[in-house]
Design goal:
Layout: H1 7-34, H2 39-47, H3 66-79, H4 81-101, H5 104-115, E1 121-124, E2 140-144, E3 147-158, E4 165-174, E5 180-188, E6 194-196, E7 210-221, E8 225-226, H6 232-268, E9 270-271, E10 274-275, H7 280-308, H8 314-339, H9 350-358, H10 367-379
Parallel strand pairs: 1-4
Antiparallel strand pairs: 2-3, 3-7, 4-5, 5-8, 6-7, 9-10
Helix pairs in contact: 1-3, 3-4, 3-6, 4-5, 4-6, 6-7, 6-8, 6-9, 7-8, 8-9, 8-10
Bound molecules: acetoacetyl-coenzyme A.
Acetoacetyl-coenzyme A (CAA) binds next to β3, α6 and α10.
Amino acid sequence: MNFELNDEQRMVRDTARDFANREIAPKAAELDKSERWPAEIIAKMAELGFLGMAIPTEYGGAGLDTMSYAIVMEEISAACASSGVIMSVNNSLFCDPVYKFGNEQQKQEILAPVASGQVLGCFGLTEPMSGSDAQTMATVAKKVDGGWVINGAKNWITNGPHAEYLIVFAITERAENGRVKHTAFLVKKGTAGFTQNPRDHKLGIKAAHSCTLFFQDCFVPDSAVVGNVGDGFKIAMATLDGGRIGIACQALGIARAALEAATAYAKERKSFGKPIAEHQAIQFMLADMATHLDAARLLTWRAAAMKDAKVRHSAESAQAKLYASEAATRITHKAIQIFGGYGYSTEYPVERHYRDARITEIYEGTSEIQRIVIAANLLKG
Ligand code: CAA
């Protein structure tokens, strides 16, 4: 596998890095503190084509590849992890499944405005009593004349308070042996019976709002079904294969920002008569952090390259997310150690990176779920 970036990918990276450094990074601390939704950053990301990066231009996207998406996700997340996940959910969890499984009408009427960033999308799989064991959801959709009636609730829905569209998964068939089948539906904000709670309050990624969504006798027409009736679970799983690449990139960005901050600080801060960077204890920490970061990036880019090659990449995405998220936690932890007392203070960015990193081990499948996916792949056949 050749990870040399081509001219287009280099240009996209430089554009993203410049935008992130100039327009996102200076606001990141304020966004975290105020928990403000970064509307102006999202608008600029839309203008740059970052909200539907791998979607063809005919459906409102930028017509680029997954590698470009991975590179941009890292740049945006290095500046602000909240902006990173808003971008990731729109690209990976909404645009990708609608492009892959949606019909022509859905692509033109719903995908196009979301991929171009005119409006946002979100993804409803998790429920209050069903997270890791996603098949056991309680949300049901019952067939009626001309459509379906959805009842249930979905929670931790990133972009939920602001999205115009949701792709939601519900049980549509329950066999006598207890086996269930799920179906994916597109629901528009404002549909009768579709409501939302106020936003959640979280440890990190505070500017990326999430909330619980409710369906009470919510009617959607037959045209809202994405893919085939009964294929919903597979659509959700295939979508997460891509989503986990996005979260691995978010972890890379957070970890890189922490490593850069710790390296710069180590060169400035003096103890025992010399910069702390000259102490081997600090050098070893920096060396380990850099090595974990590079290893995480290689795993992530491998998964992205496989997605671009249209090769099944469930296990590789799981490995990338598992390694990158755990590396981000370790790297941000060590960054605080290098900063010492100042690392614990909100005056410096590393405590934010530490809080932001933690979620990457949880959402889009916990580290334990990634290990289940990796082991299942290893043991099959
Ligand atoms: N692609 C396509 N099909 C797949 C698939 C994939 N990646 N993974 C599984 N399938 C298919 C299987 O082949 C199987 O098909 P058959 O019934 O035809 O044999 C079917 O789906 C069921 O598969 P499993 O038996 O493996 O399913 P399971 O119930 O054992 O669950 C799991 C597997 C990996 C644990 C899964 O439940 C899982 O990934 N859980 C975690 C859920 C998750 O990541 N949630 C995150 C929510 S999104 C989020 O966090 C949003 C946000 O806001 C950021």
